[in-house]
Amino acid sequence: IKQFSETFRSGSWVGATGKPLTNVVSVGIGGSFLGPLFVHTALQTDPEAAESAKGRQLRFLANVDPVDVARSIKDLDPETTLVVVVSKTFTTAETMLNARTIKEWIVSSLGPQAVSKHMIAVSTNLKLVKEFGIDPNNAFAFWDWVGGRYSVCSAVGVLPLSLQYGFPIVQRFLEGASSIDNHFRTASFEKNIPVLLGLLSVWNVSFLGYPARAILPYSQALEKLAPHIQQLSMESNGKGVSIDGVPLPYEAGEIDFGEPGTNGQHSFYQLIHQGRVIPCDFIGVIKSQQPVYLKGETVSNHDELMSNFFAQPDALAYGKTPEHSR
């Protein structure tokens, strides 16, 4: 991926008409879409990543609805567009229909021979990749035991993200993932963040009977975190039976939802404060990607955001006495 993305970004890889390709459309659904989209959204406003992506576009096509197709190729020129078809088996119905639709968009403009220059694949099924018309030499594999929902750190996420931002930027994301993996593997349970989060989920859902969890990142760059976690958690844990097929005598799996703060505060927080008990995961960010400090304001915009971040869980945890609320 490092070698290919460098060739692509340098302009050495050219399309059917000899033009360098600067636009990428990644076609996939579920784990082949939500994880990479989350990371892409987070990187778009990072100054270093944005500088590395200057002059390039990365778009995602997931929904089989033709409206999504129209949006993903709006104002794009097939001559300067590379399509990455991401499907573990290369049989996912929605992805393959969208892939055929985008293929027709390329062929109708540039001819059948253009497919090998304008379409590549991420898949474990090289036979079907070849039958589709994509050169197997331009297919990037990953281990067949990698579940789609966990695949953002495989070629599924790393390839399109590297084409947009360059491999060194994505490598730092992988190093962060490796760091938490090592923490999970080596830290004692009482200090193990993933273990504690998992135990809290079991406690809240199965023992206390709270069905939902709100994921509340106080960073607009993390606006696609909640949809990513929905798929990671709810597709994995949304089962009413045990591994042996026996119905469970208790509830398992959370209903995940969320929005970035402060938007959520003006949407569904009222229900959490005064209606239903909903456990919340608040996520704060120490340093803003885009710091702003307006003259005459008491604090920076980011400090204002973080004031909300600290105030909301405080209010949820402790509330107000009748005297305070008057």
Radius of gyration: 22 Å
What is the global morphology? globular
Distance between the termini: 61 Å
The percentage helix is 40-55%
Using the coordinates shown, work out and report the CATH topology of the largest domain: Rossmann fold
pLDDT averaged residue by residue: 95
Task: Identify the CATH architecture of the largest domain.
Answer: 3-Layer(aba) Sandwich
CATH superfamily of the largest domain: Glucose-6-phosphate isomerase like protein, domain 1
The major beta sheet can be summarized as:
5 strands, parallel
Spatial sequence of strands, sheet with the most strands:
2-1-3-4-5
- The tally of beta strands, per DSSP, is 8
CATH class of the largest domain: Alpha Beta
Give the class from helix and strand content and strand pairing: alpha/beta
> How many H/I helices?
14
Number of domains: 2
Low-confidence stretches: none
Order of helices and strands: HEHHEHEHHEHEHHHEHEHEHH
Q: Tell me the fraction of residues in β-strands, as a range.
A: 5-15%
Written description of the protein model:
With 326 residues, the chain is an alpha/beta fold. It has 14 helices and eight strands. The model has no long low-confidence stretch (mean pLDDT 95). The chain has two domains: 1-173, Rossmann fold (3-Layer(aba) Sandwich); 187-320, Rossmann fold. Belongs to the GPI family. It comes from Phleum pratense.
